[in-house]
Design goal:
It is a single chain. By secondary structure, the protein is an alpha+beta fold. It has two domains: 6-272, Deoxyuridine triphosphatase (dUTPase) (Deoxyuridine 5'-Triphosphate Nucleotidohydrolase, Chain A); 294-377. Helix content is 41%, strand content 17%. It has six helices and 15 strands. The protein has helices spanning 6-21, 51-63, 79-89, 165-170, 248-256, 274-375; strands at residues 24-26, 34-36, 92-93, 105-114, 126-128, 134-137, 141-147, 150-152, 157-163, 172-173, 179-180, 185-186, 189-194, 200-203, 207-215. The strands form four sheets. Strands 4, 5, 7, 9, 10, 11, 13 and 15 form an eight-stranded antiparallel β-sheet that branches. Strand 1 and strand 2 (34-36) form a beta hairpin. The termini are far apart.
Length: 385
């Protein structure tokens, strides 16, 4: 990726500061490639019913099976119809009339998302986010977003929803807007696919899908009597002129813009599908692995040959050493036998010398005794003979 220009580098530093404040880490592959770092499992949000929510539930129960405006034909509701039904039946909570488009109403990112970390697939995917926090959608990933708004659909009202057009142009996919059947109550869970090579960011509280309301065919008992019918006050909403007759270049420029808060002033270099690049990377890795395996096989063959030769050499050396040791041992045994024989002979000679020494000592003692008698006047018996 090319280095950002000087002006863009300033924005990058700002993004890094915001990323640190939002517990988001800037990845190495350039501006806009952000990764979520706080992956601690979320505690499911349990909303304490406020007085406004209790009032909205009461409105819904009142008009759940009764149509307050039977004169409105079964059809796709315009902005005026949406306003009247939303205020009367509380089919969307919370509701802001100023957010309507000509025939749709926006839904925003809630405080709960789900994302399976590929590095920790066994970890809980649930995440709880604070208001205004960043929701990071990595390249080639799937993330589930729960809406902030609550649907309470009367039994004569159905809803379809689709992704914000700006996000569609960026390459995010929601699929075809599924039908939310009449009678549904709850917050939607919306799967977002990012098959591009870019990492996108949403913000908790930011509008990201548009809902369209369709009134179904009526049953007689669903029609409110004249006395109970509320007054209509909904106003139509015109299509904004700033969005008329935009060129393809205008759409692309808008789609390449970064997030208004976290990536202000930044632009993605391209809007490309990440799948071909991922396939190419996989192919390159497979080729590298094949070459590495072949090199390893050649090394193993070479080392095996060297090893066999080494084994034969070592065996020959060992045999030679054994033969030498055997010869030395035989020589040693012969020398030991000869030495032992000599020692035995020398022992006999010593015994003979000791015997001769004893006899000589005895004869010396006899001579001494004779000399002593001669000195004392005792004639020697040798002269009488």
């Amino acid at each position: 990726m090319k280095k950002p220009k000087k002006k863009e580098a300033v924005h990058v530093r700002g993004i890094k500061w915001l990323a640190r404040r939002s517990h988001i880490e800037l990845a190495d592959d350039g501006p806009g490639a952000l990764e979520e770092t706080d992956t601690s499992p979320a505690t499911p949000l349990i909303e304490a019913p406020s007085s406004e929510l209790i009032a909205a539930n009461t409105q819904f129960e009142t008009w759940k099976d009764v149509d307050p405006f039977p004169e409105i034909a079964p059809s796709l509701l315009n902005a005026a119809d949406i306003d009247d039904y939303a205020r009367t039946t509380a089919m969307v909570y919370p509701y802001d009339a100023n957010k309507r488009k000509t025939a749709s109403y926006p839904l925003s990112v809630g405080n709960e998302i789900a994302f399976w970390d590929p590095d920790e697939p066994d970890k809980s995917p649930l995440r709880s986010l604070n208001d205004g926090s960043a929701v990071v959608i990595p390249s080639n990933s799937l993330i589930y977003v729960r809406t902030a708004e609550l649907f309470q659909l009367p039994n004569y009202m159905a809803v379809r929803f689709n992704l914000h057009i700006d996000l569609v142009h960026k390459g995010l996919l929601l699929g075809t807007g599924p039908l939310v059947d009449p009678g549904f109550s709850g917050r939607l869970m919306v799967p977002l696919h990012n098959l591009t090579s870019n990492t996108y960011i949403l913000q908790v509280g930011e509008d990201f899908i548009w809902a369209e309301f369709t009134k179904t065919s009526l049953v007689d008992r669903w029609t409110a009597s004249g006395a109970n019918r509320p007054e209509r006050s909904g106003q139509l909403v015109k299509f904004p002129e700033r969005k008329l007759n935009k060129s393809l270049a205008d759409y692309l420029a808008s789609a390449r813009k970064g997030h208004d808060v976290f990536q202000r002033g930044m632009s993605y270099q391209s809007l490309q599908n990440a799948i071909p690049d991922a396939i190419a990377r996989t192919g390159r890795k497979a080729s590298d692995a094949k070459r590495s395996a072949k090199k390893a096989s050649n090394k193993v063959t070479l080392l095996t040959g060297i090893g066999i030769l080494g084994i034969f050499g070592a065996a020959a050396t060992m045999v030679s050493q054994l033969l030498s040791t055997r010869s030395a041992l035989q020589s040693t045994l012969t020398l030991v036998g000869t030495t032992t024989s000599k020692i035995v002979d020398q022992g006999k000679d010593i015994q003979q010398l000791q015997s001769d020494l004893h006899r000589a000592e005895d004869e010396l003692n006899v001579i001494k005794a004779r000399e002593e008698k001669s000195q004392n006047g005792v004639p020697s018996r040798r002269g009488l003979r």
